[in-house]
Amino acid sequence: QEVNAALESRCSKVRAIHKPVDQLRLHHELAHKPDLVVLTNFDWTLLGDGLIRSVNNLKAEELLRPQATVLPAAARVWMMAVQVLPDTGVPIDSTPVERLLWAPTLRKVDLDSPHFRRTIRPLTAPTVAFAFDFRAGSPPIKPERVALDLPVVEDGRANGVVFWFEMPLGAAGLISNAPMAAMPAGARHLSLGQALQYLQPVPVSAGAQLPLHASHNRTRILFSMVEPDGRPAPLAHPRRGLVLGEQLRTLQDAALNRPLAAAVRKALFRLPANKPALVLHVGAGIGTQSVVAAQARPDVADYVVACEKSATLIDVAERVAQLNSVGDRISFLQKDCRNLKAHEDMPHKADVLVLECLDTALLSEGILHYVQHLRGTFTAEHAAIIPAAAVIKGMLVELRSGEVHGVDMTMADAYRWSKDARPVHLRDGEYTQLSDVFDIFVFDFASSALEQQVENLEIVISRDGIVSALVFWFDLILDEDIIVSTSPFVPPEQELAFGQGLVYLQPAETRVKRGATLPLLAAHNSLEMMFTIEEDKLTRKGSDCELLPHTRFDPRWEGARVNLDDQWKKIIQGLGANPKDAAQLQEGVMRFAAQSAAFGIDTRVAERCALTFLTD
């Protein structure tokens, strides 16, 4: 409301109404029927932000003039059947990973990225599924079901559908979130990504037709296979063991798996060929590196002990090992590695320790705690530790809304703020770099200790601007030759799925001049990192570094977030004592996840909530 008030004060012709569109009334919120309606409540699924509901409500309340212009005036949905591959980037058979290819929600993908180009194979030619007319004179949009016959162009196993949309904007042309290979000529590309829905796998052959049913209920588009009698195939039985989209992408990250596999093989080949080695794999996931280690020296009786806390992932890992004929060389343990028992779980100390407990912030999964517990007690004196070391790096950036088509949107930055570090994938044009890259923390996993570390840094400013945030990432040193990085400057094909961490610096944004130094306090407690501007030192910098007076964030916004977190924790605690309530809540959460737009819930939030009840 404050942002809207600020906009109103700058333009007397603007009136901001803080109400859902279905509560608008003529002669109350609206003085008269509008001549132009601009619809921006669409997402990568088209319908997930309530686009059709908004149009229908305007028509139901007779709020549109017959001659009113509606932008966009229409939308067309394109789709194609695809095979989502279980490929991990390493030459092993990972077919059991298909068990993880499901979700109660639509998944966001980007067919122009190297990862999804590798893991998603188009099997049919793009086909129009739906056409929506939003014009003022058109009738309200009703739920619809259509039968489709898709021309198959590649042999494979159809286990998903990818769809996107295009919308005309009158004289401004066409906008679309299609992959570049399917972009209409002259259209403007929306960097929203496309939507993926998983299906029950079915084999297809080039030249044949794949029959599908497509339907929508005005808030979600749904595709289903067809029974031999022409009816839509029933939905699959309820499943458990949900893995989030970003988790699955990390497990299949070829940019990490390939160098990691090379480092594991290299460490094993350095060991004596006449002595079997023991490999301890922590955070084994779907067992990719465990299988790599077991296969590395087929003529030596090497053995792998793999620890993974997720029952779902352990089940898949065991199947992958059996399929690759190394099941007898690997012992999979569903436990925290700090609960390992010498002699019972491990015949002797490990010669190679592989740690895959990583995340965007490097430390949050507990890598320092694990290596501290295992080093020496469960590893041999000169054991290879992979990764061997890591360096946290960062840079200061300006990240502001600024002017958008001549409108000052600076106040909206208060709603960009986040208390915690946010994972991002920075792209050129999204930020302005205000400092050179600098080292923050260095970790040698052969000697690192569990202790708090504090660094007082003086960061040299390389150009005039406003410091909004710190972007940090890590270089992961697997061994003396192999290094991977989550840096935003690596080529796209080398990008790791983790991305970078983004921290909005407190206490406020800071106007800086080239050549000045910004005092930055960086600290970690072995699990979390914290960054803040040292305000007491900043006051001595004069006009070269000045804190801006506007509010860094809306305290009510932050208060609402904290309140919701507290309520959710209380709900989860209460469910432990009442299984009946837990079952009812689980059913409700599944409905929210499957039809998040109908309840006004963000798709990603709904899926994370579902994870609470579907994980093992």
Kindly describe this structure:
This protein has 616 residues and is an alpha+beta fold. It contains twelve helices and 33 strands. The strands form eight sheets. Strands 3, 4, 5, 6, 8, 9, 10 and 11 form an eight-stranded mixed sheet that branches. A hairpin with a 4-residue loop joins strand 12 (209-216) and strand 13. The longest helix has 21 residues, at 555-575. It starts with a helix and ends with a helix. The model has no long low-confidence stretch (mean pLDDT 90).
Summarize it.
This protein is of the alpha+beta class and 616 residues long.
Topology:
Blueprint: H1 2-10, E1 36-38, H2 51-60, E2 69-71, E3 74-84, E4 107-109, H3 114-119, E5 120-122, E6 127-133, E7 144-151, E8 156-168, E9 174-176, E10 188-189, E11 194-204, E12 209-216, E13 221-225, H4 245-251, H5 254-269, E14 278-282, H6 288-296, E15 303-307, H7 311-323, E16 330-333, E17 350-355, H8 367-374, E18 379-386, E19 389-398, E20 403-404, E21 407-408, E22 422-424, E23 432-433, E24 438-444, E25 453-460, E26 465-467, E27 469-477, E28 483-485, E29 500-504, E30 510-512, E31 517-524, E32 529-533, H9 535-538, E33 545-547, H10 555-575, H11 579-594, H12 603-614
Parallel strand pairs: 1-2, 9-10, 14-15, 14-17, 15-16, 17-18
Antiparallel strand pairs: 3-5, 3-6, 3-8, 4-11, 7-12, 8-9, 8-11, 12-13, 19-23, 19-24, 19-27, 20-21, 22-29, 25-31, 26-30, 27-28, 27-29, 30-33, 31-32
